[in-house]
Write a structure and sequence with these properties.
The chain is α/β, with parallel strands linked by helices. The chain has 9 helices and 8 strands. Bound molecules: S-adenosylmethionine. S-adenosylmethionine binds next to helix 3.
C-alpha cells in the first residue's frame, strides 16, 4: 500500500487527469502486476513477443510510437531499442519506471497525452466528444496500441453511468473505442493492436457469472495474429467471491498501399 502511494506520488499526469485519479490508477496497475506476477506472466510474455516480432518486421531505424505504455510491463525495451532511433511512449500517466527509463536513454521520449480527448471536458463539464490527433502526420515506422483500447472508456463511462444511466454510458464507451481505432487508422503506419476482446467475470469457484464485451461492440480492424487469455484478477484480488479474466487479441493493421 505504501509503495502504491509513493508510486502514485511519483507519477507524472496532467492536472485534469490527476483530478480524475489517473495517477492512482497507474500505480494500482503496477501494484497489481507485482502482486499477480505469476498469473500475469503468460499474458506479458505473449504481449512482449508480439511487440518484438512487429519491431523485427517493421523497425527501420526510425520512430516507434507506443500508445498506452504505462508501467512498461508488456514492452520489451531491450528488443526495441536496436530497431528504432526514437521511441515515443504515450500515456496519460507515466510512473517511475517509465520516467526512469526515459531519463536514462535520450532515445526514449515520454508524451503525457489524453488519448480519448475527453479528460478536460469531463473536468470542465463540457459536452463529451471523443477524438485524438496525437502524432497524426508524424513519420512513424510502427505504432503499437498496447493493451489500451478497453481501458480508454473506463473513467468517462463510469462518471456518465452514475449521472445519465448505463445505456448512455455504453454509447459513449463505444464512441471512445471507435475514436481510438480511427486515430490508429489516421496514423498511417503499420499498427499492432493488443486489446481485450472478451471479459469473463467469475465466482469464487471459477464459474463464469457473466461475459462482457470490453470494446462495446467495436471490432478490431486488420488481421488477427493471435489470441490468449489473461487472468487479470483471480478471485481474492478484487474480492473473495469475484474475479475476472479476459481474452486478448493481437491484430495487425497495415495502412493502404503498405507492402
Ligand atoms: C492496462 S494498462 C496497460 C499499460 C501497459 N501497456 C502495461 O501493461 O504495462 C492501460 C494504460 O492505459 C492508460 N490510459 C488509460 N486512459 C488513458 C487515456 N485517456 N489516455 C492515455 N492513456 C490512458 C493507463 O494510464 C494505462 O497505462
Amino acid at each position: 500500500m505504501l509503495v502504491e502511494w509513493i508510486t502514485s506520488g511519483l507519477t507524472a499526469c496532467p492536472p485534469a487527469a490527476r483530478r480524475l485519479g489517473y495517477h492512482r490508477e497507474a500505480a494500482a496497475i503496477a501494484a497489481r502486476g507485482r502482486r499477480r506476477a505469476r498469473d500475469w506472466a503468460p499474458h506479458l510474455e505473449y504481449s512482449r513477443r508480439q511487440v518484438a516480432e512487429a519491431a523485427e518486421r517493421f523497425g527501420r531505424g526510425g520512430t516507434l510510437l507506443v500508445l498506452g505504455s504505462g508501467p512498461l510491463l508488456d514492452l520489451p525495451l531491450a528488443a526495441l531499442l536496436p530497431r528504432f532511433e526514437r521511441l515515443i511512449l504515450a500515456d496519460i500517466a507515466h510512473g517511475p519506471s517509465a520516467r526512469w527509463r526515459a531519463w536514462r536513454d535520450p532515445r526514449i521520449t515520454l508524451d503525457r497525452v489524453d488519448l480519448t480527448g475527453l479528460v478536460d471536458s469531463v473536468v470542465d463539464g463540457r459536452p463529451l466528444k471523443p477524438g485524438c490527433d496525437a502524432h497524426v502526420g508524424t513519420a512513424l515506422d510502427l505504432v503499437i496500441s498496447l493493451n489500451l483500447a478497453s481501458q480508454l472508456p473506463l473513467t468517462a463511462r463510469g462518471l456518465v453511468a452514475a449521472q445519465d444511466g448505463e445505456a448512455v454510458a455504453d454509447r459513449l464507451a463505444a464512441d471512445i473505442v471507435r475514436a481510438h481505432l480511427d486515430h490508429l487508422a489516421r496514423l498511417a503506419a503499420p499498427c499492432l493492436i493488443l486489446a481485450d476482446v472478451e471479459r469473463r467475470w467469475r465466482d469464487g469457484q471459477g464459474g463464469v457469472q457473466s461475459v462482457e464485451d470490453p470494446l462495446f461492440g467495436q471490432a478490431l480492424p486488420g488481421k488477427r495474429l493471435a489470441t490468449w487469455s489473461w487472468d487479470v484478477a483471480p478471485p481474492g484480488e478484487i474480492s473473495r467471491d469475484t474475479g475476472f479474466d479476459t481474452t486478448v487479441a493481437a491484430h495487425l493493421l497495415l495502412p493502404p498501399h503498405h507492402s
